User: Fold these one by one.
Assistant:
Number 1:
Amino acid sequence: MASFDVIVIGGGPAGYVCAIRAAQLGLGTAVVEKEKLGGVCVNIGCIPTKALLHSAYALNLISHDAKALGIEVGGVKGDYGVAMKRSRQVSEQNSKGVEFLMKKHKVTVLKGQGVLQPGKKVKVGNETHEAKKAVVIASGSRVKGIPQIGLELNKTTVISSDEALFLERAPASLAIVGAGAVGTEFADIFNAFGSKVTLIEALPRMLPIEDAEASDVLAKSFRKRGITVLAGAKVRKATVGGAEVEVEVEVEGKVEKLKVEKVLMAAGRAVNTEELGLKESGVQLTERGFVKVNLATLETTAAGVYCIGDVAGPPMLAHKGSREGVFVAELLAGHKPHAIKYDNVPSVTYCHPEVASIGLTEDQAKEKKLDYQVGRFPLSANGRARASMETEGFVKIIREKKYGEILGAHIVASHASEMIHELVVARENEYTVEEVDLAIHAHPTLSEAIAEACLDSMGRVMHV
Amino acid sequence: MEALSPTMEEGRLVEWKKQEGDAVAVGDVLAEVETDKAVMELVARAGGTLLKQLVGAGATVPVSSPVGWIGSPGESVDGSAEGQRDRAAVRQAGSVAEEAAPKAPTIPTTPTTPTTPTTPTEAAAPAAAGRVKASPLARKIAAEQGLDLARVSGSGPEGRVVKRDLEAGQRGGAAVGQTGGAAEVEFVDNPLTQIRKTIAKRLVQSIGPIPTFYLTSEVDMERVAEAREALNAAAGEQGKISFNDIVLKAVATALRQHPACNAWWQDDHVRIWNTVHLGMAVAVDDGLITPVIKHAETKSLRELSAETRDLAKRARERKLKPEEYTGSTFSVSNLGMFDIEHFTAIINPPEAGILAVGSIAPVPAVSNGQVQVRRRMRLTMSCDHRVIDGATGAQFLKTLKLLLENPLALVW
C-alpha cells in the first residue's frame, strides 16, 4: 500500500492539472487513469475535433475561395480517413505530452480503475493506496444516446463522437441530434467532407446557450453551406436498419422523415459516477446525477473527498475543470485560492465561423431586468476580416448602462475563440467598456471589432 | 492624526508606543489614540525612524494634524514655513492617505534647515500609503455613490476592491466576507415618490429633523421563557442564551419580512436593505455604543448569542473596530435588566427605526378568557415617519409579536 498526500481519480484536464498544481506545491501526488492520460479532451474530444475542423476549414477554403485568392487548383477532394489519422497523431502527441508532464512534476500515474474506499483510500486493481490529505474525483463524463426514442448507441449506424472521430470515410448522409457545441462542430466537419448533414435541435435555436443573434448568424452561414438546420425540432421516432436509419422529426407541427446513413448523437453527456465506490464512501449525488459538492470548497459529502471537472457539475468544459483542479490543489496545500467565478467561464464553439461568448446573453440580461445597452460591430466593416475573406459574424457587447460593466460579450468570427479572452480578462478585472476601448488595438486586426462594439455601446462607434 | 473612525474629528493621544529615535516599519503601532468611540492603534504608514514626537501623551489632536515625524536617521526636522512647504520630504507619522493640508498645524519648535529627499523610497512613500487598489468598475461605482474606497476592505486579488465589496459594504463601513457564489443584492435604493416627499417635508416642519412616532405592543413571553429554559437546560454554561438574544433573533427575522422597516433615509431616496445589520445599544462607562451584528438574519440563535456576547464585551473594553459599530440598518435598545417597563429610544440616523425593549414582568393578563399571571414584555418602536408609516411599523411589530409568542416560528 502506497501513501500519497493527494490521489486524483481521473487524468483528464481537471485531474492532471490538479495533480501538477498539487505537485508544484510540494504535495506527494498520484493520478489514477484507466485509459490514456489527457482524458476525453485530449483523446476523443477537444483536441482531435480541432484537428478535423482545421482540415474542414482548409478544404472549404481551397474548394470555395482558392480561385478568388489567386490559387489555381485542380479537382479538390477531401479524404476524411487521412484527416482522421492526422487528428489521431495530434491526440497521441498531446497524451504523450501529459505523460511527460506527470514525470516532470513527479506525479505517480496509477493505471487502472480507481475505486474510492472509506477513509480516503483508493483501490486500483488489487492495490489499495492511501491519501493523507485528500482524494480528488475527476472521473469526467461520457457520451450517451437516447434509447427512449430508439436512438441507442450501436456504434455503427447510431454513433457518438467516440465513433465519429475514428470513421475511415465521411458518411453520405448524417443526422446529428443535438446542436450544442459538439453537434455543431461535427456538422461543420462532415459538411466539408461532403456528407449531407441534417442538424437537429430540440430547443428553438442551434447553439441554444449562446446569444440568439449569434445562433441566428451561424444558422444562416450553415444553411448557406448546405447544412439543413432543424431547430425547435423533436425526434419522434427512429428506426434503425442495418445500413441506414429512418428518423421521424417533428418541426412546427409537421413530421418530416429522414433516411440517413448514420445518426450522430450529440445531445448531452452522462457523468461517470459508477464503479467509483462513491455511495459506499459517503459521496452523495445531486438530483441531476452530478457529485454533490460544497461550491465554496468543492468538497463532497465525504470528508476529505473533493470533486472537480464534468462530474462535479456544469458547465462541462475542460477549462472549467482545469480551474477547479488548480483551486482544489491550492486549497489542499493550505493556500487561500481565489474563488472560482463560474459566471466568467468562456464558452466556445470551433465551427466556422467560430462562436465565443462570456457572461450573459441579451435574453438573460432582459430576464434579470438589468438596465443595459447593446453595442454591435459587424465584421463586414472590419478591414482585416475583408482582407482574409472572413466577413461573416459580429461582435456584440452587452453593457450595464450606468457604470459600463461588461455584462456579456458575444463574438461570431473566424477567430472568435482567440478574441474572446480580451473580454474574459476585462470581466475578470472589472474593466468596463471604456477601459477596453482605451487599450490601443493593433490595426488591422479582428480585435478592433471588439473595441468598436464597446464604442457602439456608448453611442460612439467610428467605422460604421 | 489619522481618522480612525468615520465620524472622528479629533483624537486624544493616550500613549506613545515608539520613542524618538526608534526604528519604525510600515504597520508598526506608533501610539494608542482614543477616538470618539474607542481606544485604537495609530500605525505607521511609512518606515524609517521616529524623529520627533510633536505632541505628548494626553494631548488632543485634530484629524490630519501631524503628531510626529518619521524620516531617515539623523535627518533634521522642522516646522517653519519652509519646512511646511517641504512636508513631503519628511513623512508625517500616521498621516492618512487622502488628507490635504493640516487643519490646525502643530508647529514643531526646532527651526533647522530641512533636508531635501534624495532616496527613491521617499518619493514613493505617499503612493504606497495613498494608492487604493480597486477595479475600474469599483472606482466608477464609488465615484458615483460618493464612497471612499480607502475605507473598503477589498476581497479581490491582493486586497483589491471589486464591485462585490461595494455591494456588500456601505458608506464608510468595511466590506463583509463573501458568501459562497453570487452575492445577493444587499439593498435597493428607492427614489422618493411625490407623496413621500410631501410627507417628509411637512413632518420635518412639524416636529423636527427626524419626525418620529412611537408604537407600543405588549408581548406574552411565557413561551419564550419556556423555550429558553429548555434550551439552556440542554446547553452548557457558556452556551446559555438570554432573552435579549431571542428578541434580537426575532427582530432580524421580522425585519427580513418587512424590509420597509429595515431602511435608511438618504435625503433624496430611501435605501431598503435586503440584509439586516442589527445594531444593539450597549452601555459603556461614560456613554453608549451600538455594535452591529452583520447579516443578523442569516445567523442562528446560538451564533447570534455568541456574537452578541463578544461584541458587548469588547464594546465595554472599548476594543471595537470602526466597522463593528457602523453600518447598522436597524437598532435595538434593551433596558429590561434595569426594570424599565417601557421607554422610547432615539433613532440613530440614517436608520428609520429603533426598538426599545422593556422588562419582562409577571402581570395579570387575559389568556383563554381567564385572568392569569403571565410574563409580559413591552416593545416600543420609534419610527422615522419619512420612511415608515404607521401601518408599516404596526405590521412589523405584529410579526415580531407573533414570532415571540410562537418562538417555534423562528426556526420555521
Number 2:
Amino acid sequence: MLKEMARQVVESGQADLHVRKALQTIDELEPKLNCLLRNDKEFVERQVAELQARLECGESELPLAGVPIILKDNICVLGQTTTCASKMLGNFVPPYDATVWTKLRQAGAVMVGKANMDEFAMGSSTENSAFGVTRNPWDTDRVPGGSSGGSAAAVSAGYVPISLGSDTGGSIRQPAAFCGITGLKPTYGRVSRYGLVAFASSLDQIGPFGRSAVDAARLLACIAGYDSMDATSSEEAVEGELFDLDRVEALKGARLAVPRVVAKLLPDDMKEAFQVTLDEFRKMGAQVEEVDLPYMEESLSAYYVIAPAEASSNLARYDGVRYGRRPEGDFENISHLTTRTRSEMFGKEVKRRIMLGTYTLSAGYYDAYYNRAQKVRTALRNAYVETLKNFTAILTPTTPAPAFKVGEKVDDPVAMYLSDIFTVSANLTGLPALSIPSGFLQGLPLGVQLLGKPFSETTLLTLARDYQQATNHHQQTPELAVRG
Amino acid sequence: MKKSSSISLEETRHVANLSKLEYTEVELAELTGEMSRILETVSKLDNVPVEGLEATLAVGAYANRFREDEPGPCLEREMALQNAPDARDGCFEITRIISKIED
C-alpha cells in the first residue's frame, strides 16, 4: 500500500493527495478515540508546501512521498511540543529533531500528529497518560494497549497507514496485537534512539506500525541504520529488500519453535486460538516444533527490576531546572524545588517505577536485585540464542489475553505487568520481534509474535508477509473505521 | 544483604527521600504494600541458576565510541534555555542556594 501511495503522489505531483483524507478521518474519529495529543495543522501545511516544492524540482527518490504518518509523543520533532504524555513535559518544545524524523522527512513522509501514550512509555494500556485514555477502535470500552496505544489505535482506525512507536518491554507489539495491526521491535541498535526521550536505555527501541508486514518493512527501511548521534546504534547494513518486500520470494523451510511453557500461561480459549495459528503456519509449509525454552516467567521479574532501575536513573534529569514544568510558589532551597516539581508533575505509575528502581539500586539491595536480574538476562539470552541456532523464529502469542477494559487493571500494577509476559524477552535479549494479527476472540483482535536472530528483520517480516498472503486477519477493519 | 520480599514503611520513606518524591502518610502506606507485592513477584529471579554468569548491562558488544575531539555545531544558548522554567541573563535561574550571613 505504501509503495502505491508514494507512487501516486510522485506521479500526480500532488503532495497532499493522501494527507487531506488523513486529516478528515482524524477530525471525524478523534472525539471517539483520543489517539492524538497534537494535530498541528499549520505544521502539516508547512510540510506539504516543502514536499510540493521537492516534487516540483523533480525529486523522485521519495519512498514515503506524501504518506501521512503519526509519531509517538516521546519522539522529538523540532519546534513541536513533545510531552511524553506527562505534565512534566507539558510545554516542552524540542530544540532538535530525532534522527528517525529527520530520515522520514527526507523520505517524503508528512507528520499529521503526535500520538498519546502511557506517561514516559511506562504502562500497558495508555491509561497512564496525563491527557486522557485512548480508546480501542474495535471496542471503545477497551484499552488499545500500551505504551504506544495512540500510535497503534491511529493505524487501526485508518487515520494513517503507518506510525512510529517505541518498545521497551512490548510497547509496540502489545498494542499492535490489541488493535489488530502489525508492529515490530527491531534488534537493539537497528534504529537510532537519538531524540527518543529515554525510559530504559538498554531496552528502548523505536519501531514501525503498519497494516501489513510489507508496509512495516518499508517504514523500517526508512528509519534504520547507523547514526553517529547514538553510540549504541549498529553499523550493520540495512537490507534493501525491506523497501520492497513484495518482490522478495516466499521463505522456504521455515522452522518455528513454540515454547512448551506457553500452554501453561494461556487460558483455554487463547490456547485454542493459538493452535489454529499453528495450523495456519503448518499449512504454509512451516515446520512447527515444541521446545523447552526456560525462564519465560522469570524474564518478567528481570524486566521489572531492570526497567525501573534504568528509569529511576534516566528520570533523575527532571529536576525542575533546565526543562519541565515547575509548580507555582516559593521554595526553601534547591532540593525542595526539585522534590516539589517531581512530586507534582510525575504521574502515579512513573513515581512508582522511580521508587522501585531507586530501591533495587540502593546500597545493600543492588546485588540481590539489579545485579542478579542482569545475570538472569545473560541466562535468558544464552537460552534464546541456543534455541535460534536451530530455528528461524520463536513463535508465541503476543499477549496472554485480548484487550482488557478501561479501568480493569489500572489499580493492580502486578496484573498489568503480567500482560507483558511474552514480550519482555525480546528487549532483555536485544532480539527483533514482531506482532501480526492472527484472528479474533469474541470480536477482539489477537496477535502472535515472531522473535528471531539479531538483525533478522527481513526474515521475520518475510515470514509475516507470507502469513498475510495465506490469511486475511490483517485486512479486517474495525466497524468504526468503515462507518467513519 | 539478602533480599526479603517485603519493605517497611520506613524504608519506603527513605527511598522516597532518595528519589526526591514526597508522599502523604496514606500514600506511603499504600505504596509500601504495592512495592512489597511487586518485590514478591520479582523474587522469581531466585529460580534461575546464575553461578558463573556475567551480568549483561546492554546487549551488543558495542564499545564506547569517541568522536574526533574537534569543535562542531552545538545548541545555541537561546535554544538551550527555551524550555527552562526560569532563566535570566543567559543562565538557568534557580532558587537561592547561598544564604546571607546574618550578624
